[in-house]
Amino acid sequence: RVLELALAVLALAHPLLANLSVRQIARLPMKELADYSRGWVSLGIRERLNMVYIETARSRGTRSVKPDIGQTFPIVVSAMGRAYLAALSARERESMINQLQVKTPELWEAYASRIEQGLQDYIERGFCLGKGDYDPRTHTVAVPMRNPGIREVMVFNCAVRMEDLAEGALENDLGPRLAQMVRSIESALD
Fold it and tell me: What burial class does residue 159 get, using C-beta atoms within 10 Å of its C-beta: 0-12 exposed, 13-18 middle, 19+ buried?
């Protein structure tokens, strides 16, 4: 009986421990990209029909916006959520989209075209864009990562206030930099 309980606790703790190692490996590159972009870089996972930040690095100059660990937002309203959907298998994505349509129909209707565009962006560029989705003054880019230790999709995003963002920087600079950062974190986890 005690062994069964110990195995159950271990099974529950494994995803938390795996996320901890990702967070430890990702902290420095996240901070470097946050400083470079003059914004913030966050790591998120899915929690029901939301994304939740489990790590955030901010540049020293970040003004007014203070994203933090534990902040949640609906999957459909952000580049992070779109990147999460893009990383799922076709079957997983269909199931998640069905849930979103049934349980959040107003949000789905408002953001369905952005989700389609996000999936296309991911296919073409390797990252998803968000221009004023969650906050009209903030633009984001997001890249998913499958954590091999727990088979969970995690997503990194880089967010920058519009006034600090040069024309084309998301598409031509920050998106590719974020994708490279994620690939290097994946390599460190192998």
Answer: buried
Give backbone dihedrals phi and psi of 46, rounded to 5 degrees, phi first. Answer: -80, 140
Residue tagged 């916006």 (tokens) = 65
- Sequence letter at residue 102: V
Q: What share of the chain is helix, strand, coil (3-state, %, to 5)?
A: 55, 25, 20
pLDDT tens-digit readout, 5-39: 444 444 444 455 456 789 999 999 999 999 999 99
pLDDT tens track for 35-57: 999 999 999 999 999 999 999 99
The rounded distance, in Å, linking the Cα atoms of 180 and 184 is 6
The residues that bridge with 82 in the sheet, in sequence order, are none
Give the helix/strand (H/E) hosting 4.
helix 2-37
Closest C-alpha among 97, 73, 67, 74 to residue 85: 97
For the record, the structure tokens of 100 come out as 């979103």
Angle, helices 79-87 vs 105-125, to 10°: value is 70
Neighbouring C-beta atoms of residue 37, cutoff 10 Å? 23
Under 8 Å between Cβ of 153 and 84: yes
